[in-house]
Amino acid sequence: FSSRRRHTRLQGDWSSDVCSSDQFYDHFWVMKTDAYGDEEWSIESGGNLWDEAQDIVKLSDDSYIVTGKTSLSSTNLNMKVMRVSSSGQILWQNNHGGGNNDTATGITLSQNEEMVAIVGYTRSSSGSPFKYRIWGVDATSGQIMWSKIYGGNQEDKAFGIVESFDNGFTVVGRSYSHGSDRVNWMVKTDSLGNVN
Questions:
Q1: pLDDT of residue 5 exceeding 50
Q2: For the chain, first and last CA: distance in Å?
């Protein structure tokens, strides 16, 4: 790899690793290696602007779902999600967002593997504060099942998500809306992303 490229191991087991990079021709980049670090396959997806993979989960059929962001224009970023087969074929890809900035930073797979929950942040216009955003995505088709936004009147960005014992989700990130300075902010939702 060139020293100018930043690559991160995102998923691995005893026999292989899957890596993702956010600086490979400004594309989503997913690479699978064997146990010795030798490449088995590599794929790219993206356009001529800024596409960035952020997180990945592995399914029981050895496929992967990757999420991050994609640029629709120089001023409009959308959440991007893509499923890749065990042999490196893109099975489906989708994006979702508004008119300014929707970025995915974390992903978790439901226990029954029917959906993934994706977390990140959103804002409606340049200069407006970021808020937490959570997407529920069908793992088979890539279709958006639901989308929720939470936050205050200052900058709030979510970076991690896990499925809870009750099939809801726990989201963590940073917030400037809930204190005099930046604080860690945890949000607990039900299985449809609702906060009670």
A1: no
A2: 47
